[in-house]
């Protein structure tokens, strides 16, 4: 699929996507990456997959005002870091949605990954909007329609913003696959609104 050069909303089957590969300038993105990488208390937890407990193949931190539960674990949020607040407001302006949490993931290298899933937990409500800001190493991001198996792929580069909206989470899955081609870390801020 070809994507327009100018950032804009793109209608896909049963959903909407917004992609801006240059949402943040390189120096701005690098400064935020370094600050988050050095200052956040990263942790790794065991989650339940197919009835067994496995360690998540990445590190994470939850920031915001609401706890978030998924894959059998509950994350308690840290207060919003001051350096994230202006970025959050810029993202909210594009998404036309206020966000009360950000699940921040650290992929240490290409072996850290995210399997196929949808962000469709009940605590996110109907038709949740998920905004994803990428910092650091570029990684493949693949979406797959649950019925038609149509795939859409992005290379999420340093400073790129991807917003998933509409009924996308109900009808599509997405993943960050493993790769031997990436040896550098990537940080991904996924802004969301948790209900309750």
From TrEMBL:
A Pfam family per the record: 2OG-FeII_Oxy_2
InterPro entries in the cross-refs: AlkB-like (IPR027450), AlkB-like_sf (IPR037151), ALKBH3 (IPR032854), Oxoglu/Fe-dep_dioxygenase_dom (IPR005123)
Record GO terms (molecular function): catalytic activity, acting on DNA; demethylase activity; dioxygenase activity; hydrolase activity; metal ion binding; oxidoreductase activity, acting on paired donors, with incorporation or reduction of molecular oxygen
Domain Fe2OG dioxygenase: 98-195
Domain of life where this protein originates: Bacteria
Keywords for this protein: Dioxygenase, DNA damage, DNA repair, Iron, Magnesium, Metal-binding, Oxidoreductase
The name this protein goes by in its record: DNA repair protein
Required cofactor(s): Fe(2+)
Organism: Vibrio breoganii
């Amino acid at each position: 699929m070809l994507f327009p050069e100018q950032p804009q909303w793109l209608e896909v089957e049963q959903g909407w996507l917004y992609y801006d590969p240059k949402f943040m300038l390189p120096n701005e993105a690098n400064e935020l990456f370094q600050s988050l990488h050095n200052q956040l208390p990263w942790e790794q937890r065991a989650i339940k997959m197919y009835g067994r407990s496995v360690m998540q193949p990445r590190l994470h931190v939850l920031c915001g005002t609401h706890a978030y539960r998924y894959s059998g674990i509950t994350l308690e949020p840290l207060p919003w870091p001051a350096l994230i607040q202006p970025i959050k407001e810029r993202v909210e302006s594009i998404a036309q949605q206020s966000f009360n949490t950000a699940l921040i993931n650290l992929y240490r290298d290409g072996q850290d990954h995210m399997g196929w899933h949808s962000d469709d937990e009940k605590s996110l409500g109907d038709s949740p909007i998920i905004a994803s800001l990428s910092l650091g190493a570029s990684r493949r991001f693949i979406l797959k329609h649950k019925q038609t198996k149509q795939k859409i792929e992005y290379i999420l580069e340093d400073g790129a913003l991807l917003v998933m909206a509409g009924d996308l989470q109900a009808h599509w899955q997405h993943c960050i696959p493993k790769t031997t081609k990436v040896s550098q870390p990537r940080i991904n801020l996924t802004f969301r609104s948790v209900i309750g």
